[in-house]
Amino acid sequence: MADVEDSKNPVVSEVMEKDVTSAVAVAGHPLHAMTVHFPIALVFVTLAIDVIYWWSGDAFWLRAGLWSSGGAFFMGAAAGAVGTIELLSVAGIRERVASWAHAIAAIMLIALAGLNWGLRVTESAEVLPHGLLVSMMAAVVTGMAGWHGGKLIFDHGIGLMVSPKD
What we know:
This protein is mainly alpha-helical. Helices cover 75% and strands 2% of the residues. The protein contains 8 helices and 2 strands; from the N terminus they run H-H-E-E-H-H-H-H-H-H. It has helices spanning 2-8, 10-16, 31-35, 37-56, 60-89, 91-94, 97-122, 130-154; strands at 25-26, 29-30. The protein has a two-stranded antiparallel ribbon with strand order 1-2.
């Protein structure tokens, strides 16, 4: 139903005609889509580590959480930089509302990942309860950013390469 209505709207039709091919790609594969997997996984790993530390009290998990949260932050910042270049350089991506919703959620996520890592670098005693709460918030925001990112790929075809034979 939405596709029928969208095709009648001249503004939506104009946006849908814009090029959405990736500007930052390796061998035609969008670099942003390739770089988000590790930070996403590390956000959830950090949450799991925090729960294990809460349950066990073993100091090993403090160091593991420091590394996983640092990886989530720095790899997320790298993925975010690539995504920002993509957003700002491709008009077909920039003009879609879902792109901006994804970008805002991703910026919130990078900020939470940085906070989570910062709590652990400065004071490991802050892991309970603050680190655990930040890890939970980061997991929720990861879901939001991922949902909007998936919407861009599956609903808008952002970064997809479709050959004439497909």
